[in-house]
Design goal:
By secondary structure, the chain is α+β, with helices and mostly antiparallel strands. The chain has one domain (about 1-255): Endonuclease/exonuclease/phosphatase (Deoxyribonuclease I, Chain A, 4-Layer Sandwich), CATH 3.60.10.10. It is built from eight helices and 14 strands. The protein has helices at about 10-25, 45-50, 115-135, 160-165, 170-185, 190-195, 210, 225-230; strands at about 1-5, 30-35, 55, 65-70, 75-80, 95-100, 100-105, 145-150, 185-190, 200-205, 215, 220-225, 230-235, 250-255. The strands form three sheets. The protein has a six-stranded mixed beta sheet with strand order 3-4-2-1-14-13. A hairpin with a 2-residue loop joins strand 6 and strand 7 (about 100-105). It is globular. The N and C termini lie close together (about 5 Å). It binds one DNA strand through loops.
Length: about 260
DNA sequence: ATGGTAGCGCTGCTA
């Protein structure tokens, strides 16, 4: 089973690239983030033509998460389990069950500046995700949390830790919040397979960062132990970050036996 | 030390 995650940074702009990528990468499940679409504008037909069922949670111009699957798509749920009916939330979390695997597509808030209210909201969001799995999920079952965490878990996931010191994505509280998810029973599958530093999934559009190799590994697939043990291969597909109109993120693929 | 780009949508916000 091949599971992938990709922050597409506008599905409207990226649809041709996503279609092309699906045709050669052929994931069984693709989690997308930052579709920037309302549900009514989600191109479900384009994906069904390629053999994928889909679910989308979007609010329009910001955020937006989706799950595509060609191995079944059941029990779709948007948002947190402790979310009140009337609570208005951003479109950052979508769940579905695909071939017996509980899948989450997540887009963690960026945080903007350390210490800002947005940064506090980011930490609170990650803590709420931890509470969600703690209270409603079972670490002995097959579950993956896929998406843009907006956190580089360790210094080896950062092109220049000294230069970025004091900024978001690498601060200790953010890393601790991701570590708390791992402590519940999740494994960073890419890192489990490949220990090397200098492998990234996001590069700033500005200043030629992609071509200069200045990136961060912030797109992750976290899997429960029984599933993580079956991971055989993973790839951050830098080819998809090239060419015309690329996203600022590359897709991450993981194969489970 | 700073600013650099991209997307949305029409003004500046978000990343």
């Amino acid at each position: 089973m091949r599971i992938a995650t990709w922050n597409v940074n506008s599905l409207k702009v990226r649809l041709p690239k996503v279609e092309e990528w699906l045709a050669y990468a052929r994931p069984d499940v693709l989690c997308m983030q930052e579709t920037k679409l309302a549900d009514s504008a989600f191109p479900a037909l384009a994906f069904s033509a390629l053999g994928y069922e889909s679910a989308h949670c979007g609010e329009g111009r910001w955020n937006g998460v989706a799950i595509l699957s060609r191995v079944g798509l059941e029990d779709v749920m948007a948002g947190f389990s402790d979310q009140a009916e009337e609570e208005s939330t951003e479109a950052r979390l979508l769940w579905a069950t695909c071939a017996g695997v509980r899948v989450a597509s997540i887009y963690v808030p960026n945080g903007r500046q350390v210490g800002s209210e947005h940064y506090e909201a980011k930490l609170a969001w990650l803590n709420r995700l931890r509470r969600h799995v703690e209270t409603g999920c079972d670490p002995t079952e097959n579950l993956v949390i896929c998406g843009d965490f907006n956190v580089a878990p360790e210094d080896r996931d950062v092109w220049d830790p000294a230069k970025l010191h004091g900024g978001t994505h690498i601060s200790a509280p953010e890393r601790e919040a991701v570590a708390a998810l791992r402590d519940w029973g999740l494994s960073d599958v890419f890192r489990q397979l490949y220990p090397e530093s200098g492998i990234y999934s996001w590069w700033d559009y500005r200043a030629g960062d992609f071509h200069q190799g200045r990136g961060l590994r912030i797109d992750l697939v976290l899997a429960t132990k029984p599933l993580a043990e079956r991971a055989t291969w993973a790839l951050i597909d830098r080819q998809a970050r090239k060419g015309k109109l690329p996203s600022d993120h590359a897709p991450l693929l993981v194969d489970f036996q």
